[in-house]
């Protein structure tokens, strides 16, 4: 060892500050989040930014959502899972009305439950199991009583009968005159009917997602509509009428929106078909998503699309290389309201 190196080592040993060279480490200490009475949801989200793990991810999701909700960004919103029956309906409808959603991709199930609420039905607080019964025994009792269970949410089956009548009286007849229509045309007519019946009957609950989309010219795409009561009823009606759905008809309008967007963002709640349908749109566009937020509970390790990271989507060309994106792995009924409220608070200030 040279005298110079020996002197340096001795000096480091004396002051106790010998630090190795680190390529990936940077000095950015974890702070300890504060939770206090009277703080706003935006302030809480800022505190999350001082912490690590999921809190840091949620804070980043607020940052990306704030940028995405800019007026110049075309926002594609993917909505999967039981978000409507679990109480997230109004948030989505308000985002549409406030101009933060330009394209909605969702499931037939969410549209079914949205319509049930629009025409006077209600979902109810329930239980996963009843005292003194196994979960199976509890569900057998619910079956006998005509109550459908979505985890801890109940829906009496008579509301499905009302929904079926709504479709046959208010929605399908108009579409039958048009013959073969796109799925987007079906969701548009559903929104119109929901809004009209909601107002005509004086329903206390708001007209909902499909109605908001109809009233604000926001297209709703539902590529797996067959996988729902809505799709099942559409098929049944088609058996005795000239009405039918063209599954490919929506692709042109959807891809045109992506093609001509100057900047685009994807906000994805859950996975499944809405997630993939939203992301794959950019495979036929000259550019890709500039912003993306994903709220999911599915793990990435299985290789399934629902849990796949948005970084993985970048490898497919669905996101720009320099896109701002984040995935938050937690129950979306918890994270979705927090992210939206915090982002909107920032935009309002």
Brief synopsis:
This protein is α/β, with parallel strands linked by helices and about 350 residues long. About 50% of the residues lie in helices and about 15% in strands.
What can you see in these coordinates?
- The protein has helices spanning 3-15, 41-48, 53-68, 84-97, 108-118, 135-145, 158-178, 183-200, 209-215, 229-238, 250-260, 272-280, 310-316, 332-348, and strands spanning 73-79, 103-106, 124-125, 147-150, 153-156, 180-182, 220-221, 244-246, 263-269, 289-296, 319-329.
- The protein has 349 residues and is of the alpha/beta class.
- A 6-stranded parallel sheet has the order 7-2-1-9-10-11, with helices on both faces. Strands 3-5-4 form a 3-stranded antiparallel sheet. Strands 6-8 form a two-stranded parallel sheet.
- Helix 12 links the parallel strand 9 (263-269) and strand 10 (289-296).
- Helix 2 (41-48) packs across helix 3 (53-68).
- The longest helix has 21 residues, at 158-178.
- The chain is globular.
Shape: globular
Rounded mean pLDDT score: 92
Largest sheet, order of strands side by side? 7-2-1-9-10-11
Question: What's the total count of β strands?
Answer: 11
Per DSSP, what share of the residues sits in E-state strands of 2 or more residues? 15-25%
Structural class: alpha/beta
Q: Helix coverage percent of residues?
A: 40-55%
- Write down the Rg: 25 Å
Which oligomerization state do the chains in this entry correspond to? single chain
What is the string of SSEs from the N terminus onward? HHHEHEHEHEEHEHHEHEHEHEHEH
How many H/I helices? 14
């Amino acid at each position: 060892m040279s005298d110079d190196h020996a002197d340096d080592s001795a000096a480091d040993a004396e002051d106790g500050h010998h630090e190795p060279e680190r390529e990936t480490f940077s000095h950015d200490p974890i702070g300890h989040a504060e939770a206090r009475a009277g703080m706003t949801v935006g302030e809480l989200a800022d505190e999350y930014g001082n912490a690590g793990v999921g809190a840091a991810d949620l804070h980043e999701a607020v940052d990306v959502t704030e940028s995405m909700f800019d007026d110049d960004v075309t926002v594609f919103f993917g909505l999967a899972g039981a978000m409507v029956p679990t109480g997230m309906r109004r948030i989505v409808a308000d985002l549409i009305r406030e101009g933060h959603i330009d394209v909605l991709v969702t499931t037939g199930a969410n549209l079914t439950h949205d319509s049930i609420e629009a025409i006077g039905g209600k979902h109810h607080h329930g239980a996963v199991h009843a005292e003194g019964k196994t979960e199976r025994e509890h569900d057998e009792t619910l079956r006998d009583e005509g109550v459908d269970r979505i985890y801890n949410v109940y829906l009496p089956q008579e509301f499905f009968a009302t929904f079926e009548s709504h479709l046959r009286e208010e929605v399908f007849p108009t579409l039958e005159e048009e013959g073969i229509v796109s799925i987007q045309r079906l969701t548009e007519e559903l929104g119109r009917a929901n809004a009209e019946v909601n107002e005509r009957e004086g329903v206390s609950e708001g007209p909902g997602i499909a109605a908001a989309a109809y009233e604000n010219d926001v297209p709703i795409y539902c590529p797996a509509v067959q996988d729902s009561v809505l799709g099942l009823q559409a098929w049944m009606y088609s058996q005795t009428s000239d009405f039918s759905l063209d599954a490919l008809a929506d692709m042109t309008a959807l891809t045109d929106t992506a093609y001509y967007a100057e900047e685009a963002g994807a906000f994805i709640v859950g996975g499944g078909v809405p997630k993939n349908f939203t992301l794959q749109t950019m495979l036929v566009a000259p550019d890709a998503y500039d912003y993306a937020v994903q709220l999911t509970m599915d793990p990435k390790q299985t290789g399934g699309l629902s849990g796949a990271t948005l970084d993985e989507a970048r490898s497919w060309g669905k996101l720009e290389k320099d896109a701002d994106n984040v995935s938050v792995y937690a129950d979306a009924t918890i994270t979705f309201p927090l992210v939206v409220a915090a982002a909107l608070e920032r935009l309002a200030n």
